[in-house]
């Protein structure tokens, strides 16, 4: 699990402005992302059949690169298309329900903002936790106050070596500090959806201490 969390790209069509989500994902896959989550949510997001078709197109791209394809929140869609897993937030469908409905092999990720939420997710049977927001972000309008590297370190201390990915405001400048603070991996949206050179952006996110 930890290796898959290393470079976890998240995206929905609403994050892509006038660019093609499939094209962005393909470039990100070629550049070396290790996991992908479709987060089709918020203003301008596709719904219904359109969302399903988008999900299937993106899933096919991930399959071609043998990279896990995770669906945010929409458990029905994840099951219907045979995704590799789901990611749920604190306000999404209760974990017990999700576990009951999903196939055995599903990867289940849960968002957590503090130690309490993190511990609960682990107890409930999550396979990884997504912790944040680490820094300020404009991507999620209802994002909570950033927990910073201090908050991240504290959660790491409390969860032992449980698989943990950090999210929110992560870019080339802070990626290495986030890993140093205890994250097994980083997840990110805008640093790739807004990049002019996706390959370069992924390389910089991978690199150690590029800007220090
Ligand atoms: N959850 C917490 S912050 C966030 C999500 C989905 C948005 C992250 O986007 P970005 O552009 O990488 O800051």
TrEMBL record:
It catalyses: 2-[(2R,5Z)-2-carboxy-4-methylthiazol-5(2H)-ylidene]ethyl phosphate + 4-amino-2-methyl-5-(diphosphooxymethyl)pyrimidine + 2 H(+) = thiamine phosphate + CO2 + diphosphate; 4-methyl-5-(2-phosphooxyethyl)-thiazole + 4-amino-2-methyl-5-(diphosphooxymethyl)pyrimidine + H(+) = thiamine phosphate + diphosphate; 2-(2-carboxy-4-methylthiazol-5-yl)ethyl phosphate + 4-amino-2-methyl-5-(diphosphooxymethyl)pyrimidine + 2 H(+) = thiamine phosphate + CO2 + diphosphate. 4-amino-2-methyl-5-(diphosphooxymethyl)pyrimidine binds at residues 37-41, 72, 111, 140. Keywords: Magnesium, Metal-binding, Thiamine biosynthesis, Transferase. Mg(2+) binds at residues 73, 92. 2-[(2R,5Z)-2-carboxy-4-methylthiazol-5(2H)-ylidene]ethyl phosphate binds at residues 137-139, 169, 189-190. Pathway: Cofactor biosynthesis; thiamine diphosphate biosynthesis; thiamine phosphate from 4-amino-2-methyl-5-diphosphomethylpyrimidine and 4-methyl-5-(2-phosphoethyl)-thiazole: step 1/1. Its cofactor is Mg(2+). InterPro entries: Aldolase_TIM, ThiamineP_synth_sf, ThiamineP_synth_TenI, TMP_synthase. It comes from the Bacteria. Gene3D superfamilies: Aldolase class I. Binds 1 Mg(2+) ion per subunit. Belongs to the thiamine-phosphate synthase family. Condenses 4-methyl-5-(beta-hydroxyethyl)thiazole monophosphate (THZ-P) and 2-methyl-4-amino-5-hydroxymethyl pyrimidine pyrophosphate (HMP-PP) to form thiamine monophosphate (TMP). This is Thiamine-phosphate synthase. It comes from Terribacillus saccharophilus. The gene is thiE.
């Amino acid at each position: 699990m930890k290796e898959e969390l290393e470079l976890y790209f998240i995206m929905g069509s609403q994050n892509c402005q006038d660019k093609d989500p499939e094209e962005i994902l393909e470039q990100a896959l070629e550049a070396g992302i290790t996991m992908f989550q479709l987060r089709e949510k918020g203003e301008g997001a596709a719904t219904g059949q359109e969302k399903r078709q988008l999900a299937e197109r993106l899933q096919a791209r991930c399959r071609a690169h043998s990279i896990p394809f995770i669906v945010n929140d929409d458990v029905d869609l994840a099951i219907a298309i045979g995704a590799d897993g789901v990611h749920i937030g604190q306000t999404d469908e209760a974990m017990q329900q999700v576990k009951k409905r999903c196939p055995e092999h599903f990867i289940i990720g849960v968002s957590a903002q503090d130690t309490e939420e993190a511990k609960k997710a682990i107890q409930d049977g999550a396979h990884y936790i997504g912790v944040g927001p680490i820094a300020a972000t404009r991507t999620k309008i209802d994002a909570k106050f950033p927990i910073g590297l201090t908050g991240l370190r504290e959660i790491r201390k409390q969860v032992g070596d449980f698989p943990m990915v950090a999210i929110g405001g992560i870019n080339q400048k802070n990626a290495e500090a986030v890993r140093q603070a205890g994250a097994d991996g980083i997840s990110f949206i805008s640093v790739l959806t807004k990049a002019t050179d996706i390959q370069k952006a992924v390389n910089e996110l991978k690199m150690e201490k590029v800007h220090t």
